[in-house]
Amino acid sequence: MTTSSAGAAGGAGVADRTGGPGAAALLRGFVSGGLVGAAVACFVVGPVTDRMNLLAVGGGLIAANILLLALPRAVRRRSTPPRPGPQLALGRIESRRALSSESGDIPVEFVLTVAPDDAPAYRAKFTQAINLVDIPDYKPAGIVVVEYRPDQPWKVEIVTAPAAEWVRRAREEAVDSAPESTLAAPPAEGCGFCLLMLVGLLLGAAVVVFAFRGDLFDDDGTPNAAQSTTRTTSSSTTMGTVRITGDVMLMPGQMRGAAEQLIALMGTDKATELSIDEDFMSVAAPKPSDPGLVDSFRFRDGKAEATGPHGTRRPDEPLIDLRALPYDRMLFLVVEAKATLGLAPDTWHISFHRVAGTDALEIIVTVGDSYGGASLRADAEGNVVERSPRR
């Protein structure tokens, strides 16, 4: 028995059922982007300018955006019939291409002729994860059972364990190849929706910033100096007074990223010692196979590496959770130490310790120059609790 493919015209009809967003949807995307952009700008401008009422305005804009997106969808759901569910059909494998050479399940790109029982046949291109040992079962010209959506014909998936009736049909029936011109594809107009949303987002943010430019900038267009000096907890303002250009580890996300690389290498996220310098991070961690033994590791130049044995540890010795540390506060602590400890330092060092007799964590930031050093102590949340300036 043969399942005939449709002609080019009929197959193209199936593949062309991909209507993109209309003018109303594009306008809705533009307005939605504007609301989101304005809301985000309100959340940023409000604290910077001490206009906390902008936070409420931003929340209102987010609520309006949710309403804008939800109402048309609800109306459309009531006025349109329910979407047809997934359907089964026979398919002919036209080509296959493995996208990876790893073991286990790997992504395979298929081009299939899909032959619905009640619609013209067409081609579909999709990617599906297939176990490496099962790939020989999916040879070109082979017949398989597929699941597809009539309203979105490009969404196709091979059924790896079909019912007995479909197994029989796949074994006994043949499927002719559909023309390449019948290849189903998702709507290309979706990029226009995203582009308009992005434009709206930028315009919305620009409107809010422009409206409060007097509070954000001086008359000459430079950031307000008074705000830069009073908000010492803001990394963007304090960096203007203390130069940290050469400090690699203070770059955004660098410490957390270094910690994650070290965790992957060590096989544990617990450490007995941790210290951070300008361009590297050092860790001592117990061996996962023998927690009584401790090895040393280091992150430098973007790479984590083991540096050798470190020593031993007592079973009751407290450990440092590398994923629970306030890395985002380290920049503030270093800048605070450089600015408030009575010296013009050219080096800094951060170490983490457990307070003797307790499980409390303390952070020590030490800065120094050619004549000595000074330090400050912070708690586990990165709040300064004690300064020890040079006298």
What are the defining features of this structure?
391 residues, 3 domains, eight-stranded antiparallel sheet, five-stranded antiparallel sheet, flat
Structure description:
The chain has 391 residues and is an alpha+beta fold. It folds into three domains: 13-80 and 188-230; 87-182, no CATH class; 233-391, no CATH class. It contains ten helices and 17 strands. Strands 12-11-10-9-14-15-16-17 form an eight-stranded antiparallel beta sheet. Helix 2 runs antiparallel to helix 3 and helix 2 (23-49) packs parallel to helix 5. The longest helix has 27 residues, at 23-49.
Low-confidence stretches: 4-19, 218-245
C-alpha termini separation: 96 Å
Shape: flat
List SSEs in N-to-C order: EHHHEEEEEHEHHHHHEEEEEEHEEEE
Radius of gyration: 31 Å
Secondary structure: helix percent: 25-40%
Number of strands: 17
Structural class: alpha+beta
Strand order of the largest sheet: 12-11-10-9-14-15-16-17
Average of per-residue pLDDT values: 83
How many structural domains are formed by the residues? Answer: 3
* Major sheet details: 8 strands, antiparallel
Beta content comes to 25-35%
* Tally of separate helices: 10
> What is the multimeric organization of the chains shown?
single chain
Question: Would you summarize the structure shown here?
Answer:
The protein is of the alpha+beta class.
